[in-house]
Amino acid sequence: MRLPLLLLSLIIATSIEAAPGFEVKRDTDSYRDWNTGQRRERTETSLRLDGGTLSMKALAQLLATDGKPIYPTLWDARVSGPDQALILFNRGSGQDFELARLYRKNGGKPQAEVLLRDLPYNWFNDARRKGWVSVGGADRLYLVQLQPLRIVDAGPGALLDVRGDLAVLADPGWNKRPPAFRAVDMQRGREVARLELDPACFVLPDFEFSHPLIYSGLGSSTPERLRFQDGPAWLEHNLELLTAPKPALRLRPTQQLPQPDPVRWGVTLREVDASPQPRTPESMGDASSPEIEEFADTLDLVPEQCQASNPNPPLRAGQEPYPSTSVATDDLCLGELLKGVPPTFREQRCVLPARTRTLAGSTQWALEEVRYGYRPGGKGAAIEQTVYQLRQGTTVNRYIAGSRGFDEALAIREVLPTGKGEALLKTRGDGAYELLRASTDAGGKLRLEYLDTLPYPASPFDASRAGWVYLRKPGLLVRLAPFAYEQAGESLLDIRGETLLYAYGDSETDRLTLGQRTFGSDHADDSPLPGLVLNAKCRREDDPYWEFTLPPVNATLEQSAAWFARHFDYQPGAQGAIRLRADHQLRARPGCAAR
């Protein structure tokens, strides 16, 4: 006779007797992840006692030993006997995980005892030994025997295998610890053997030992990543565990631990600080400084001791590492050798001794120019290098502190002597320049004065007009005696006495204006001095901004003054002081007229 399905279900349900003691129930369902569109599994763990579910409210009452209410979440559980269970829980959202023991005596009411706090993970893991589990992580691993209950603090590391009573762990070596292999006696709960590795010569893989759902889904182990299930075989291949006369660990001759990837430095040349270059009518791209290769050379640093201790190739052998550090040639060739750089490096690449000459200074300080050669890769012709350094007594520096209090070392990029014991310095850190003035105080000591910040790239010092120094970009003009400086603009043509002659094109009116003003005057309040304007009929179609009519953007004052004198006459103080010469050769349309 066939029974109705409902009756059959009732018969099955009532035929199950409640098991005495603790039980763990896991309900798994699937759901669609709306972020990825994939199906995922979700597991909810609950604890049963004598056939009935132990509610979160009851669990909270058991765990709230200090009387304060808690709102626990049960994450994982293991039964360690009819009247005992281990649980992993946390007391509220965002709090660390804890290990607790639930137990009862002689069938009485359940009780709770917190065993471990501040655990990083909320699941039990395989301890590679029957009747044991592990909790914690690579910073500190705990091995837990279920029955009788016992906890072994195994210390830092990933559990590779258990051999007899010895647990062997691999410690990747974080927080300034060297990487090491460790053997821990599970009976006595202490480390009995240790093998430390030189981190400069050996690299351990990433140990994917965190969760079974992760490491069980990995395809295979690689030199960069080791699966949990491959730990014992990897240990056997690379490491030997000795037990007599006392426990010891040593690398096998067959070990295949790779060396770390070499540390690659990128070597930069001291490039010439060139001003923007002029364009041509045929090439109307933006003016820019000459492009300089970022790294003229590279240096792979491999510690010498590794060649004897580890013959294996680097982890990513055959791949070109990107330079992790940028270093200038003078830091490699001059002064003391940098740490980790072999002495043969200078012999192969640096053309020494350097040639040094003093540019400015006093009896207590000197600004010096240093010239030497650098041969990239140790081959071919040497490239001439020029750097500057500050000597004060026996101390020599190619860098100085930022004059405005910034915590940055500024390289001295250009020095222009301007008088006895005086000079202008252009220094640069990671970005813009700082313009400094060096002079000598009454006691003969160096005095550095910050003048201005200059954008990069900036023009070289232009001292072609006696008594003046000009940087066309960004338009800074310095008068040496009496000392003063101001922003004169990038269109300065000439200096006559204290009068500045300049020119600029107006793209809105298509006019070219030549003007004059007095050095040190306020631009806004200065009464306009007689000038000259070339109207739009003078401008050629291929010169929309008068760029190719005016001197090039990298012209010195001497060159722009010659351009002005060739095309214009100047009579100071007269009406129409600037006049277009009849024999001018401006790049302009025929019949150009001025007003």
Automatic annotation (TrEMBL):
Keywords (A to Z) from UniProt: Signal
Signal peptide interval: 1-18
Official protein name in the record: WG repeat-containing protein
Organism whose genome encodes this protein: Pseudomonas solani
Lineage, uppermost ranks: Bacteria, Pseudomonadati, Pseudomonadota, Gammaproteobacteria, Pseudomonadales
